[in-house]
Design brief:
Elements (H helix, E strand, L loop, with lengths): L22 E12 L2 E12 L3 E5 L6 H8 L7 E6 L2 E2 L4 H10 E4 L11 H11 L5 H14 L15 H13 L5 E5 L7 H16 L3 E5 L3 H7 L2 E6 L2 E6 L1 H6 L4 H10 L1
Parallel strand pairs: 3-8, 3-9, 6-7, 7-8
Antiparallel strand pairs: 1-2, 1-4, 4-5, 9-10
Helix pairs in contact: 3-4, 3-5, 4-5, 5-6
The structure holds adenosine-5'-diphosphate and magnesium ion.
């Protein structure tokens, strides 16, 4: 996986990336079951504003479930999740507010196929934020420029490559002006030659100070921009460290085994 991308080619400058003392997201004793199946077991995690967290681990370890709980695409049954000062409870109004602050990018881009790229980007700002169409379009064009595909604005998703569609998905999220971005294996459905163009956009976002939680097995990206790498297995956070230590000195046998399989 790692050999498709040379970390040094990506030019992230970690010294530019500031981490605040303020907490963006906290999970405290979070537990979740799917029926009988205990999918998240006492998960504890504090993410500060401006941090970039990379989450890795074997398939089925609960990575997607954990980040989906942060924007309430999934509900946890025990413990506490606080996003930008708001605890996630059954209060629907609060959940709406939190969702506006948390952008999410999925493995399969989830663009609306019957809407143009520009319409995909303006839909939520117009309907959720009640933004005038003209303003929404102006903002969308700014973000499409930032992900380097403004010329695709009037095409449909099916006319774009996978890498371009994923960059649209990122731009679409940014149009809602989120405080936190969640990524769930954003490059794992892409052909290798398109991985880099998406990672470069994510690195630019990291450099802009965005708080990011990224489920990815792109270890070059992790080394380059993450301040912490988390390893999950069987619903638990097994290990968490800054990238150099994480890769050089994995503490747990399961982490070593996992790294030996993907690196
Ligand atoms: P990962 O993202 O690490 O691959 P997931 O969070 O997707 O893992 O899934 C963790 C476990 O929970 C897997 O065993 C998966 O089969 C199970 N699971 C995920 N979603 C559901 C669901 N909606 N209902 C029942 N089991 C689920
Ligand atoms: Mg997953």
């Amino acid at each position: 996986i790692d050999n498709t991308i040379d970390a040094n080619e990506l030019h992230a400058d970690r010294s530019k990336m500031h981490v605040s003392k303020e907490v963006a997201v906290s999970l405290t004793g979070v537990n979740k079951w799917y029926g009988e199946f205990h999918v998240l077991k006492d998960v504890n995690l504090t993410v500060r504003k401006g941090e970039r967290i990379v989450i890795c681990g074997p398939s089925g370890s609960g990575k997607s479930t954990m980040i989906r709980c942060i924007n309430r695409l999934e509900e946890h049954q025990a413990g506490q999740i606080v996003v930008d000062g708001t605890e996630l409870t059954n209060d629907l109004k609060r959940i709406d507010e939190v969702r506006r602050e948390v952008g999410m990018v999925f493995q399969h881009f989830n663009l609306f196929p019957h809407l143009t790229i520009l319409e995909n980007c303006t839909l939520a700002p117009i309907w959720v934020k009640k933004m005038p169409k003209k303003d929404a379009e102006e903002i969308a064009m700014q973000y499409l420029k930032r992900v380097r595909i403004p010329e695709q604005a009037n095409k449909y998703p099916g006319q774009l490559s996978g890498g371009q569609q994923q960059r649209v998905a990122i731009a679409r999220s940014l149009c809602m002006n989120p405080k936190i971005m969640l990524f769930d294996e954003p490059t794992s459905a892409l052909d290798p030659e398109m991985v880099k163009e998406v990672l470069e956009v994510m690195i630019g976002l990291a450099e802009s100070g965005m708080t990011m939680l990224c489920v990815t097995h792109e270890m070059g990206f992790a080394r380059q921009v993450a301040n912490r790498v988390i390893f999950m297995d069987a619903g638990q956070i097994i290990e968490m460290n800054e990238p150099n230590e994480f890769f050089k000195n994995p503490q747990h046998e399961r982490t070593r085994l996992f790294l030996s399989q993907i690196l």
